[in-house]
Write a structure and sequence with these properties.
Elements: E1 2-8, H1 16-24, E2 29-32, E3 38-43, H2 45-53, E4 58-62, H3 77-83
Antiparallel strand pairs: 1-3, 1-4, 2-3
Length: about 110
């Protein structure tokens, strides 16, 4: 059994009679009919294709999924460390500390 997307290509929303015909078919399960012009059905290949061929305003395609790419791919950690230049270790003298910068006072 395979899942198929059936799309109505006629004018207006999908016909209620066609949806009922699919629901009453013994080999086909209607999984989702919430879209105004599409259906998601599950059934044997030959049964789905046969019923789609008998309804002229319908197009049938096998359901397919696509894995989404990572939005922010990152380099592996080993490559990042190898690519980063070595930074010298700062020599900190405890007796010499930097004094904070003083803000300039505005005249009143």
């Amino acid at each position: 059994m395979s899942r198929y997307v059936m799309r109505y290509t006629g004018n207006g929303p999908k016909p209620h009679d066609d949806v009922q015909r699919l629901r009453q078919h013994p080999d086909i399960d209607v999984i989702d009919d919430s879209s105004p012009r599409m259906l998601l059905v599950d059934g044997p290949d030959h049964a789905c294709q046969q019923i789609a061929d008998s309804m002229p305003d319908w197009v049938i395609n096998r359901e397919s999924t696509t894995e989404l790419p990572q939005p922010h791919p990152s380099a592996p950690r080993i490559e990042r460390e190898a690519a980063a230049p070595e930074r010298p270790t700062p020599n900190v003298d405890e007796t010499h500390r930097q004094t904070p910068k003083r803000r300039r006072q505005r005249p009143a």
